[in-house]
Automatic annotation (TrEMBL):
It comes from Halomonas saccharevitans. Its EC number is 3.1.4.52. One of its GO terms (molecular function) is cyclic-guanylate-specific phosphodiesterase activity. The lineage of its organism: Bacteria, Pseudomonadati, Pseudomonadota, Gammaproteobacteria, Oceanospirillales. PROSITE patterns: EAL (PS50883), RESPONSE_REGULATORY (PS50110). Residues 139-389 form the EAL domain. The keyword Hydrolase applies. This is EAL domain-containing response regulator. InterPro entries: CheY-like_superfamily, Cyclic-di-GMP_PDE-like, EAL_dom, EAL_sf, Sig_transdc_resp-reg_receiver.
């Protein structure tokens, strides 16, 4: 059953000043199996949200006496838990600010949709809603449940494949945590990570590293050597236990290349301490990656001081690479920066494989995203490695060359 089938009879509220645009959107939603209601004013929308608890809100940023930013705040204040899709009829930078505000307010933001709306693009946005990540369908999590989850070993991992762009080969994986909840099923990290206490977070990091190194050891025994990326917090990096924990795990399960990923903002909070920790990790044979690069406001001078091995270009730039010249310019600049600094540049959020030749021309070295492979259990990684690379398949269909696999 696909995502759109799961959405039959679900309600979408549309806030749009132009009635013709709203009518077009309503027809498109009906085609995709969703009921919709039209709101012309922000106050009307808020009342409908409170009364009907819709699964989706689609809204423009410009209408009447209010703007979309004030409506975003009011949606958060009234506890809206569904998805939110912005209609973009304004400059892309303004839409990005709105998207970031919505995320900061805890709203479930979908990638924005440009006007005029196209059915295929709307379908793509809605297909991005994973059924197991629907907020209203999930069991509310409690701290005592989290403690039991650790005791019962309900914490598990899925792996996002990462490919070398020049050869198309599977080169690494990113470990992504999941909670196999006994009642609610497989829960995404957004449902429980914000609830963790500092002690629980440290316990989770230990558990993730242990599971990931065990899986990497099994892959190596089967003849598949992959780099292993693990997301860590700033607190994790500042904890002396982290280094010994990874070192012990590598001694027990083999010398798997381990990359510790930290978000750009967190990596830059304490210049001296962050540099010291990264240097110690580097001396111990571990690598540090700056995740979501480009969405923060860090100093390039600080970046120069950190002994990092990898930059991951945020998906918000990669997803519109072929449509937005500004996004393309940012990705190209980050790739050039990485090349000059001698570090890998990973493009995240690949959905349309048509962007791969451009990314390679810019100088990106690795890619990952749903278009190449969704997060999967450890057992499926070996099958993926044996299958034809999606990059090679795409290149064969287009007649392009991917070079030679080492």
């Amino acid at each position: 059953m696909n995502d759109l089938t799961m959405q039959v009879s679900r309600l979408a509220l549309v806030l749009e000043e132009d009635p013709d645009a709203a009518a077009t959107l309503s027809l498109q939603l009906r085609t995709l199996g969703m009921e919709s209601r039209y709101c012309r004013q922000g106050q009307h929308l808020i009342g409908e949200v409170v009364a009907r608890r819709p699964h989706l809100v689609i809204m423009a940023l410009e209408f009447g006496d209010h703007d979309g930013f004030s409506i975003l705040r009011r949606l958060a204040e009234c506890g809206y838990r569904g998805r939110l899709l912005l209609l973009s009829g304004v400059e892309r930078k303004i839409v990005r600010i709105a998207e970031r505000l919505g995320q900061a307010l805890g709203l479930a933001m979908l990638p924005s949709l440009d006007k005029p709306m196209r059915l295929a693009e709307l379908r793509q946005r809605l297909e991005g809603e994973a059924p197991d990540d629907e907020p209203d369908a999930l069991h509310p999590c409690r701290l005592d449940e989290l403690d039991r989850a650790f005791a019962r070993q309900e914490i598990t991992l899925h792996y996002q494949p990462q490919f070398e762009l020049s050869s198309g080969r599977l080169s690494g994986v990113e470990a992504l945590v999941r909670w196999a909840h006994p009642e609610a099923g497989l829960l995404m990290p957004g449902r429980f990570l914000p609830l963790l206490t500092p002690d629980q977070n440290r316990h989770l990091t230990r558990r993730v590293l242990q599971l990931a190194l065990e899986d990497a050891h099994r892959w190596r025994r089967a003849g598949l050597a992959l780099s292993l990326s693990v997301n860590v917090t700033a607190d994790d990096l500042m904890c002396p236990e982290l280094l010994s924990l990874v070192s012990e795990g590598r001694r027990a399960f083999g010398e798997t290349p381990v990359v510790l990923e930290i978000t750009e903002t967190a990596a830059m909070e304490d210049e001296l301490l962050g540099s010291e920790v990264a240097a110690r990790l580097h001396l111990s044979g571990l690598e540090v990656s700056v995740d979501d690069f480009g969405v923060g406001f860090s100093s390039l001078a600080r970046l120069q001081l950190l002994p990092i091995s990898e930059l991951k270009v945020d998906r918000s730039f990669v997803s519109r690479l072929l449509e937005d010249p500004q996004d393309a310019a940012i990705v190209e600049a980050v790739a050039l920066l990485g090349r000059r600094l001698g570090i890998r540049v990973v493009a995240e959020g690949i959905e349309d494989l048509a962007c791969l030749p451009t990314l390679e021309r810019f100088g990106c070295t690795h890619v990952q995203g749903f278009g190449l492979g969704r997060p999967m259990p450890a057992a499926d990684i070996l099958a993926l490695a044996d299958a034809q690379s999606p990059i090679r398949a795409s290149s064969a269909a287009s007649g392009a060359s991917t070079g030679s696999t080492p």
